[in-house]
Design a protein that fits this description.
Length: 301
């Protein structure tokens, strides 16, 4: 086992969408421009090539190129977390090493899911431990059952946390009870982050250290303020912020997805651009809805 090279991970991390040109090619210059703008926001780092980065539609070369481009514009003190999950363990190890060479600080590894019925607790644990043994950078577990159909049990995360090169988990199940159990039964420097911006306050209440949420792309300041208010004991004010952001989170995650998130970025003056097929573009009538929901939440300039 390798020594854990990272400090505990805490705060607000957007899973940054991958920009494409109109012809569908990777637009690293727009990724860098968006990150430069986000550098002025109260964020603690970025997840590049997460689910909102459409990583499943990118080649290995494109995934690595996105990390290389992001590294160039990363300010000191912010973490660059790279998605390196693949279906196979050997392939995940190989990509994790490439991401480390490209400049990633941490690798976030989504659960394998194609052979869903075979992804038992034992299979997941073995996969993650083998990746962590071979990885030159710390590894973060990534549980996103809404996409994978595989819901990692708390016991898997708890056992994996004993490996000193597994530094934390992003759990997108919105299961606050599970988050609390993982916090309670893992070491103090194992970082538990929620993947649900709509459940952020509930996750904080049971000990989560932060969030990796699509919402953080468009609402970094309110999410950071919510965490500050919670830590200061100002729970009513924190709850008011959470309630204000729930409609935005529901619209951009549960209903409209990445096309809606990219439209929201464009409304805020960043580059949104197209999604990559087979995802469909945002229906024309939804643009006004995105604008109205952002406006009501106070998220437009």
């Amino acid at each position: 086992m390798t020594a854990n090279k990272s400090a505990p991970i805490k705060g607000i991390f957007p899973p940054v969408p991958t920009p494409f040109h109109e012809d569908g090619s990777l637009a690293c210059e727009h990724l860098q421009a968006n990150l430069r703008a986000m550098n002025a926001m109260p964020l603690d780092g970025y997840v590049i090539q997460g689910s909102n980065g459409e990583y499943v539609y990118l080649s290995i070369a494109e995934r690595v190129a996105a990390i290389e481009a992001a590294r160039v514009v990363m300010p000191a003190g912010r973490l660059l977390i790279a998605g390196s999950g693949m279906e196979g363990t050997a392939e995940t190890i190989a990509l994790t090493r490439q991401m480390a060479a490209a400049g990633a600080d941490i690798a976030i590894v989504v659960s394998p899911c194609y052979y869903k019925a075979a992804m038992t607790s034992a299979a997941l644990e073995r996969h993650y431990l083998m990746v962590a043994d071979a990885a030159p950078i710390p590894v973060m577990l990534y549980n996103v059952p809404g996409f994978t159909g595989v819901d990692m049990g708390a016991e898997v995360a708890i056992r994996c946390a004993a490996h000193t090169n597994i530094c934390g988990i992003k759990d997108s199940s919105a299961n606050v009870q599970k988050i609390g159990q993982i916090v309670e039964e893992t070491r103090a420097d194992f970082s538990v982050l929620t993947g649900s911006g709509g459940a952020f306050l509930g996750a904080l209440a049971v000990g989560a250290a932060g969030t990796v949420a699509a919402l953080a792309n468009v609402a970094a300041a309110p999410l950071a303020e919510m965490q500050r208010l919670f830590l200061a004991g100002k729970l009513d004010a924190a709850a008011q912020l959470q309630r204000r952001l729930i409609p935005v989170n529901m619209l951009l995650t549960a209903r409209l997805g990445i096309a809606g998130l990219k439209a929201a970025l464009a409304l805020q003056g960043l580059y949104g651009g197209p999604v990559r097929a087979p995802l469909l573009p945002l229906p024309e009538g939804e643009h006004a809805n995105v604008r109205a929901v952002l406006q009501k939440a106070g998220l437009l300039p």
